[in-house]
Design goal:
Strand content: 15-25%
Distance between the termini: 17 Å
Low-confidence stretches: 1-14, 443-461
Mean pLDDT: 90
Shape: globular
Bound molecules: zinc ion
Oligomer: single chain
Radius of gyration: 25 Å
Structural class: alpha/beta
Number of helices: 15
Strand order of the largest sheet: 4-3-2-14-15
Length: about 450
């Protein structure tokens, strides 16, 4: 039996878009992925994409590993290996986890690819040549002991907004605010643990403050009714706080080299290059990539977790706007976080259900986890995953209710219809009443595929 629900999404009725480009946040390749990632980003994106494909829409579903940035170099340093060793290891684990859990990407790429380095460098160069950056020499924190500038997570300190004590130089993970290293109170080097000195260095900045009117019009006026309230609210609060220029380059040796002659030892900021990874991956997959990124009839949707809102709603759109030939995201459905047994999932404290470990314990139960994580998805608030709930949903909902339904269908088809699904004849009043009841319960119009339907009367007898 095959039931197709209709009218889930109003936009499909309007047929406003010719095609869809759907991206799912690039997981950071310095560790495996866990159930929080799956529930917040990858399952929702996959459901959306599967639905669009069922409706015979032209969809491009893009994923890949984010392989640059400071946490990777910190981990490599700690383990005495190269950053490449780290990303090769975790890219493989993450990619395999997504395959095992049926996330149906059209491509799962990585930002260390040659295609990506070229695309990101070209993107930077276009903005540079069109005068979209501010060039500034400023004093930045420097670790004298290790002779290294302290970008992003190489520096920690107190958040000036919420006073969380372990905020990073680029973002406070507690309140989500994006920061500059010099915003931190009592900064410390993450390498030596010592207080850093300040030293001159030149960088390129994207003046987000020049885009305030654009953001007000595009987000605050244009997407008040269709963006999720958590996403809209965060954007509004940042725009109202006043946007600042953001440095898009770093003093580091791991990343996409800044394609300018006077930029030795500098790479693109990971959050500048990572979202361009969606574009590079599309290019890697098809020569016909431009229609997925430049045609206004394409709907661009970014699935992310709430910690990525600032990058996907402000920084990346400002980059796309500055470049000028790209479409902007039509929606950014960010989810909240999933907790585990009432505690925040924590990579550093190893409090998580890692997907590759789940598969070792329950090797053929991917769909059970997909089902449970869909049922407890943190859509509008942080939600909790518990093993007790997992057990109940498996035993009572999947095995008892759904399993019994399938079993009855098969048994009755054998008993009354000689194992053949009969062609549908006239619907009885009881059939119609049952269909109407389904429609009422789901709030959606149901269409039952006529040629493979057993009589509803038999199912209920
Ligand atoms: Zn904070």
């Amino acid at each position: 039996m095959y039931i197709c629900t209709e009218n889930i999404n109003i936009e499909l009725l309007n047929k406003k878009f010719k095609r869809y480009t759907v991206t799912a946040a690039l997981p950071y390749a310095n560790g495996p992925v866990h159930i929080g990632h799956l529930a917040g980003v990858y399952i929702p994106a996959d459901i959306y994409v599967r639905y669009l494909r069922m409706c015979e829409q032209d969809v491009m579903f893009i994923g890949g590993s984010d392989e640059h940035g400071v946490p990777i170099t910190i981990k490599a340093r700690q383990q005495g290996v190269t950053p490449k060793d780290i990303v090769d290891k975790y890219h493989t684990i993450i990619k395999q986890s997504f395959e095992e859990f049926g996330i149906t990407f059209d491509i799962y790429s990585r930002t260390s690819s040659a295609m990506h380095h070229q695309t990101a460098a070209d993107f930077f160069k276009t903005l540079y040549e069109h005068g979209k950056f501010i060039e500034k020499t400023t004093q930045q924190y420097y670790d004298e002991e290790n002779k290294q500038f302290l970008a992003d997570r190489y520096i920690t300190g107190e958040c000036p907004f919420c006073h969380y004590e372990r905020a990073y130089g680029d973002q406070c993970e507690k309140c989500g605010t994006s920061l500059n290293p010099t915003d931190l109170i009592n900064p410390k080097s993450a390498i030596s643990g010592k207080a850093p000195i300040l030293k001159d260095t030149k960088h390129w900045y994207l003046p987000l403050n020049h885009y305030e009117m654009f953001f007000r019009e595009w987000i605050l006026e244009g997407h008040q009714s269709d963006w999720k309230t958590n996403v809209y609210g965060q954007c509004k609060s940042w725009i109202d706080q006043g946007l600042q220029p953001r440095a898009v380059t770093r003093d580091l040796d791991w990343g996409v080299k800044v394609p300018l002659p006077d930029a030795q030892g500098k790479v693109l900021y990971v959050w500048f290059d990572a979202p361009i990874g969606y574009i590079s991956a599309t290019k890697e997959l098809t020569d016909d990539w431009e229609k997925y990124w430049k045609d206004p009839d394409t709907k661009l949707v970014h699935f992310i977790g709430k910690d990525n809102i600032v990058f996907h709603c402000l920084i990346f759109p400002a980059m796309l706007k500055a470049e000028g030939s790209y479409i902007l995201p039509d929606n950014v459905p960010a989810n909240e976080f999933l907790n585990l047994e009432n505690n925040k999932i924590s990579t550093s404290q190893n409090w998580a259900v890692w997907l590759h470990e789940y598969l070792q314990e329950l090797p053929d139960k991917q769909d059970v986890l997909r089902y449970v994580l869909t049922a407890c998805a943190p859509e509008t608030k942080d939600n909790d995953f518990t093993w007790k709930d997992f057990q109940t949903r498996n035993n009572s909902e999947l095995v008892a209710i759904f399993g019994n339904f399938v079993n009855r269908t098969v048994v009755l088809t054998e008993k009354y219809f000689q194992n053949q699904v009969p062609a549908i004849t006239e619907l009885t009043d009881l059939d119609k009443a049952a269909i109407a009841e389904c429609a009422k319960n789901t709030g959606k119009k149901l269409r039952i595929a006529l040629n493979i339907t057993v009589s509803v009367k038999d199912l209920t007898s």
